[in-house]
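Take a minute with the sequence and fold tokens given here and flag any structure token that looks odd. Thanks in advance.
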Amino acid sequence: MNRVSVRIDGVDYNIAGEKPEAEIVKVAKYIDNELKEIFSKAPSLTKINAAILMSVNVADKLFDARSENDQLKDKIEKLESSITNTSEDLEKEFDSVLEKLAQSDEMLAKVKSERDQLKLDLEERDSKIESISLAGSSASDPDIEKKIKSMQMQIKEMENKVAVAEAMATEFQNKAYNIQLNYEELKNSIK
């Protein structure tokens, strides 16, 4: 327990308390200043009446501070709740983007596989056409030409699908990266 000698309104007091000496002295100076202010405004008051008036003023300030403290606690609780909800929403959105990204990757792989198969089929058809041409057949088979054109159109369609899928995958990857950055910033700001 700390013992401190302080002067309030010209009278020395020995105060004992658990708080550090500096805090006890700070409180005593505050009380002394409050009493001086009351005496400066109402010099005719007795010391007891001035002390009571000062006690009422200090109690009023205490109640105001408690009320403000309670309001701040409520705001903090609401902010913490909001941060928790926002964090959960970000996690859900992040998971959703990752799932879409995985689906996009699967679709891209499927489209690439189909494109590669179409290229192989086209090469096989080209090879057949070349062997027919080399065999000396001067008449061209209209069905083969139609099939070749059809295959070429399918390859172009697949290439377009691959380009779209690659663009979607890139977009999802960028969104996932941005969400992850926002999530990390939010986590760091909560700490």
Remarks:
- The beta strands are 2-8, 11-17.
- The first helix runs from residue 21 to 41.
- The radius of gyration is 42 Å.
